[in-house]
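Sample pair:
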Amino acid sequence: MLVEIWSDLVCPWCYIGKRHFEAAAARFAHSDELEILWRSFELDPSAPIEREGAPVEHLARRYGVTRERAQAMEDNLTGTAARVGLEFHLDRARRGNTFDPHRVLHLAADRGLQGKLKERLLAA
């Protein structure tokens, strides 16, 4: 059974969703029949190659909230990630355009390595 999942590579919620999917798939009676295909979705196609400045400052500007509210959003996200076994350090995140990493992910699919690379890119 082919399962196509559309997600970005810098989306922390996508990483959390990946963990939820993996947990559900592990409970699925036919999990050995699953084929996962990662599709590209860019959250911000107009993003620069690398975004300068503190991630929390960008989040505050993007959603029109105070820095304090943006920090609370990131703290909530970090707590949610921890509940599925992920350790986030969003204050050190390097964010930017994901077009080229998506291209590499599709090359990895051609080589049978897409799942492994997806995990490595999300972890980074």
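Strands lie at 2-7, 35-40.
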